[in-house]
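Researcher: First entry.
Model:
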Amino acid sequence: MNAAPRPKTVSRAAGTEGEARKQRSDGAHARAHLLHAALRLFSEKGFAKTSIRDIAQAAGANVAAISYYFGDKAGLYRAVFTEPLGSARDDIALYNQPHFTLHQSLEGFFAGFLEPLRQGELVQLSTRLHFREMLEPTGLWAEEIDNGIKPAHAALVKVLCRHLGLAKADDEVHRLAFSITGLAIHMFISREVVDAIRPQLFGAPDAVEQWAASLVAYAEAMVAVETARRKHLPDPPAADTPRLKTASHEKT
C-alpha cells in the first residue's frame, strides 16, 4: 500500500495549472484592451487615418502585442468590426424554427439582435464604426451584407411567409421584414437620442428585456396589418403589386 500523498507533485501540477489560467486571463485582458482602444480610434478616425502606433499608445501596449494577437492592422480592424456586434447569421437558429409560433420567432429574433446593447459604450462605438465603414469602405461591410445580413434577412422572410401562409415571398413580405428589422436597428442608431430625451428607457437593469418585449408586440401588430391587407386582395399579389390605395389616394 502506498497511500502517502506526494505534495511536491501535486503542488507542481496545481501551480502549473494556476499559472496557465493566469496567463490565459492576462492574455484575454490584454487582447480586449487593445480591441477597445482600436475600436475607439477606428470609429473616430477611420481605418486609413489610424496607425498601429496610435493604437498601441492608446492601449499602453507595444506594437508587437498587436502583431501577436491580430497579425496586422487589417486583422485588428476585422476583429474590431466583427466581434462586438457579431454576425447577423449567428442568430438565425434563435428564430427560424418551423415549430415556433410567430411570437416565439419574434422573441428569438429581437433577443439575439438586441443582445449587444448590454455592452454599453462598446456597442455605441461599434455602431459608429459601421457607419464610418459605409462612408469609407474597406470591403468588410460588403462582406457582412453577403455573409451575414442577406442570410439573416432570408431567414426572417421565411418565418414571415410561414405565418402568412405564403409559398413564396413577394415584395411586401420583404418590406415587412426590413421594417421589422428596422425596429431593432433603431435601438442602435438612436441610442444617444433616446438617452438625451428619455434616459430611463436604457437606464433600467432590465432595459434590454423591456425593449425586446415591446418590439415583439410592435412587430406582431405589423404582421397582423399585413395579414389583414392580404385578405382584401382579389388575387395573390405579384412580386411588384403595390399596397392598397390609401384614403388620400382614393380621394384624388
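Researcher: Second entry.
Model:
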Amino acid sequence: MNSMHSRGLLYSLIFSFGLLGCSGVEAPPELPATVPFSGSIKLDGKPMNGGLVTFVSTTDKGLNASGVVGADGKYSMMISLGKQEKSGAVPGKYKVVISRFVKPNGEPQDPKVPAEIPGRESLPAQYSVAGASKLTAEVPAAGGTADFDLKSK
C-alpha cells in the first residue's frame, strides 16, 4: 500500500469518527452532588424488617432518593437517574413514603425485585401512600440521619 493511499484512508477514518462525535447523541446528565444520609425505622417499637424508604422532593428541580430497609431497620439513601446511581441524597426538603410489601406468609418481599402476586402492603396508608403520608425529612448540606417510629395500626 503506498503512503498516499494510507494517508487518504487515515483522513477518511478521522473524518468518519468526527462525524460520529457530532451525531447529536448526548451524554447522560451528571448526577448532582449528594451528602450521606441514613437512619432507622421502627415498627411498633421494634426495628422494621425490610421495606423501602422514598424521599420525594418537594421542589420542582429536586431529585428523589430511596433506600432499602435492612433486617435491622436501617437504611441508607441513594439517588438514581437512568442506569446511574450515587450514594446519599441531595440537600433539601422531602415528603417521606415508607413501604413494606410482604408475601402471603408475612415475610418481607425484596424491594429490588418485581412484586410477587399476591403480595400486599403491610403498612398503613399514612406511611405508604405518597398522597397520604405526613412524614417529612430535611437533608442538611452536611448530611445526617432521620429515624422514623411507625405504628402498624
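Model: Note on the second entry: The mean pLDDT is 82.
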